[in-house]
Amino acid sequence: MEESRVIHEITPLMGKDFLYIADRRKKEFTYPIHNHSVFELNFVEHAAGVRRIVGDSNEVIDEYDMVLITSPDLEHVWEQNGCASEDIREVTVQFHLDLSDDGFLSRNPFFTLRKMLLEARKGLAFPLDAIMRVYSLIDTLSTIKDGFYAVSQFMTILYELSKSQGARTLASSSFAKVGVESDSRRVLKVKNYIAKNYMDEIRLATLADIAGMSPSAFSRFFKLHTGRNLSEYIIDMRLGYASRMLVDTSKSISEICFNSGFNNLSNFNRIFKKKKKCSPSEFRENYHKTRIIV
């Protein structure tokens, strides 16, 4: 059994608690990569140059950053990288919410909120205008002594974020182990087929046949519904599975290449580097180095 290199964080949130709020100022990020069973909204300011890793997403952040994560399996970390700020502020809110189909959030007034929380299983980064919209609320959240009012203000933050435009999912579905979803039954059938057969050759004619369309019509239809070319979608899914294997297994790069559906090692290395800005071996090394189990 391989040892885990990712912390499963034991949070201070106990049985009947709803919120854990940590509002702190610091000069550097030192906490290693981790995951945890509770949901988390993390806000960082004055931290331009910090590297944020969420699943297989790796980005350098600007002055302000806000990310929502609702998956117990999704690894994440904010690393010091090139940040030179002497006054970093980080507000972390951990919480529980029921996302079941018959739970409180399944009621009509909470539609956009529940939708956002489900999307955040892959990690969700918010644009600057959305952050500014809730800035005064997140800024004062830790000062509220009354638990009910703190929860009320936090739910307002989440609701305002759920109405904002431009939030981006970070990790790929395949890396985050999130099931495929679609607003089209035809596209969903195709996505499910790709998810089950990503390691094999996938022909356009086969997918078009599943959708009951001609290949050219299906290609246009798929891009209209997903915003991506079919080939791009398949490559991104394969890269997500490859990235997950790089983190979770000790398989060789060559094994991972062929197990994730690429039939040419040099082609795999080239595509991986283009998409992830590093080689597969660098991705594995970056994920594992200086990670400490606590």
Descriptive account of the structure:
With 294 residues, the protein is α+β, with helices and mostly antiparallel strands. Helices cover 42% and strands 17% of the residues. It starts with 6 loop residues before the first strand and ends in a 6-residue tail after the last helix. Residues 1-5 and 290-294 have low confidence and may be disordered.
* Gross geometry: globular
- What fraction of residues sit in β-strands? 15-25%
Structural class: alpha+beta
Regions with pLDDT < 50 over 5+ consecutive residues?
A: 1-5, 290-294
Tell me the number of helical segments per DSSP (H or I, 4 or more residues long).
11
Read across the widest sheet, the strand sequence of neighbours is 2-9-4-7-10-11
Instruction: Indicate the mean pLDDT.
Output: 88
Tell me the series of helices and strands, N- to C-terminal. Answer: EEEEEEEEEHEHHEHHHHHHHH
DSSP strand tally: 11
Helix fraction bin:
40-55%
Q: Radius of gyration in whole Å, from Cα?
A: 20 Å
Main sheet makeup: 6 strands, antiparallel
Distance between the termini: 19 Å
